[in-house]
Write a structure and sequence with these properties.
With about 300 residues, the protein is of the alpha/beta class. The protein has nine helices and eleven strands. The N and C termini lie far apart (about 75 Å).
Length: about 300
Amino acid sequence: MESNNLLLQCFAQLEQVVKTLQSSTIEEDEGGIAAKLGSKLSGRVAYGLRGLTAKSLENLNVDAAPQNLVLLESKVPELAATSTGLGNSEFWSSDALHKHLKMLKGFVATNEAGVRLWINAFFFRVHAMLNGTDKAMVLSVEQHVDVNVNPSTDLNVFVDYAALRGSKDVAGSFLKMPILGLKRNRDSLTLFVSEAKRLDTPLEDYLPQTAGEMYACAKALQKNIVRGALTDGRSWIFVIFKVNEAGGGTYYCTNRIRVIDFFGHISKEQCDLIAGIIAHWIDKSHQDLDESDWIAYNGA
């Protein structure tokens, strides 16, 4: 009898916690909580976690673009030099990133956990590059996104990195409650990065998963365009996802941009280039490519 009373008390406390969370987000969530609960009971198709494949994308009406994005090689020296000069009064200067990656190359095993240390270093550098303005950049690792992408389908994914840049109030709120789809976050800038989970698998094999995650994020933020990247820390593929008016979408991607050169050395220019692209793409998160970009549509 005593154990039953204790169990009832626990359920009552849990119910109160749920009500508190709902009341604190329901106005901004615009019915999302109720919609998600209803979808779980209605037999809807659900995709997500680490199970997205090319076939999954086909079922979602998501296609790879026929043309790739290309790095504008003529801009690389100038833009890498510009990147070098940003945030150099901060701890994570251009030189600090280069030295740190050189240390990691000879110190950390090339497994999934090691990959994350390489990616972290780039985000630390980008934070330094974007610091000192009226906006703040914050980072969510393993960002959960559960969203209805069409009347019969849900996407339930974890994005390895979501970098949000917005007003200091919004950024501070996101740190405490990292729910991507809240109305307050929709005017912010958000870049999404997926991490390759196996280094013995070609990086390009993870593009369907990355595209699906970016689609979910675009729907959660109610954006027609989102920018992101796929990486194993040593090579980066930059991706743009465009939502189609009729549903689904199209994704465009670069070839690999490598940190390590032909001779096995970590290239400082490539480090500056990649950090510069990440910083620029955060500021252009939900815009199409234009003349200020370092990357263009192939044939444009």
